[in-house]
TrEMBL record:
InterPro entries: F-box_AtFBL13-like (IPR053781), F-box_dom (IPR001810), FBL13/AtMIF1-like (IPR050232), LRR_FXL15/At3g58940/PEG3-like (IPR055411)
Organism: Arabidopsis suecica
Start and end residues of each F-box domain: 12-48
Name of the protein in question: F-box-like domain superfamily
PROSITE patterns per record: FBOX
A Pfam family of this chain: LRR_At5g56370
Signal peptide start and end residues: none
Top-level taxon: Eukaryota
Length: 279
């Protein structure tokens, strides 16, 4: 008891005596910016944060960010990266550099990727390593450009949230969804503009939760054509949320009787005849 009390009074730093892998685990539970501040504690802590498997950054100061992220990714190129989250809203962000970081993350067997872009220039998700990842488990993308490749394979992807992205052609999104054999949670948020895919097909044998949003109220673009459709074929679906004020056709097949459904759709009825016109 006395020895324990003496250690406490002497201010012994027991945390710093822990092995590196435990310190990295502790830091990985902190926001990245807080983990970085531990580098000033002592020489023992100077480079510990560089070995954490998570990088979560909201870009404010471009110069500082580039230096910081590059140092992190260059420190241990052979180590695995568990999660990469990039959020930015500055127009002076170098997209080429960010694409290189994302490609590097896939080379390091990333499991969770989140890209939140709030700038006019889109990130071009072109590296083949992205479409053939054998480690990716969750994917969240906002305002990026996705390409269609002849062969796409994401065998472990379970969660995919896609918001206001641009797809290379009408089949890109459908092909991406169908290339995820264990996908369980899918969210697709679309805006109404000239680049939006008008026919959305969701076909999945594994999907459990599906949320689709197509909201024209916040868009400047007006399209009154009858080409907007939603087609869903997901026999294991347990939850469906559908918010859509643009599509004119909805085809939902193989929906289980126990599925929970939340549907909020509106149709343009200006051209529908009055009931008495039929008699």
């Amino acid at each position: 008891m006395s020895n324990r009390g003496a250690s406490h009074r002497s201010g012994e730093d027991r945390i710093s005596s822990l092995p590196d892998h435990l310190l990295c685990q502790i830091l990985s539970n902190l926001p990245t910016k807080n983990a970085v501040t531990t580098s000033i504690l002592s020489t023992r802590w100077r480079n510990i944060w560089l070995s954490t498997p998570i990088l979560d950054i909201d870009i404010n100061d471009v110069t500082t960010f580039v230096t910081f992220a590059s140092r992190f990714l260059d420190f241990s190129k052979d180590s695995c990266l568990h999660k990469l989250k990039l959020s930015f809203g500055r127009e002076d962000v170098d997209m080429c550099t960010i694409k290189l970081w994302i490609e590097d993350a896939f080379k390091r067997k990333i499991q969770h990727l989140e890209v939140d872009s709030r700038v006019d220039e889109m990130i071009d998700m072109q590296p083949l390593t992205f479409y053939l990842s054998e480690t990716l488990v969750s994917l969240r993308l906002h305002f990026v450009l996705l390409h269609r490749f002849v062969f796409v394979s994401l065998p472990y992807l379970k969660v995919m949230h896609l918001e206001d992205n641009i797809y290379n052609d009408g089949n890109t999104l459908e092909n991406l969804i169908s290339s995820c054999p264990v996908l369980e949670d899918l969210t697709v948020v679309r805006s109404v503009d000239e680049t939006t895919v008008k026919v959305l097909r969701v076909r999945s044998q594994s999907l459990n939760s599906l949320k689709l949003v197509l909201d024209s109220s916040k868009c400047w673009y007006n399209d009154d054509s009858n080409d907007w459709e939603v087609i869903i074929d997901a026999p294991r679906l347990g939850y469906l949320s559908l918010k859509d004020d643009q599509s004119v056709s909805f085809l939902i097949s193989n929906l289980g009787s126990s599925a929970k459904v939340d549907i909020n759709v509106s149709f343009n009825v200006s051209d529908i005849w009055e009931v008495e016109d039929w008699f």
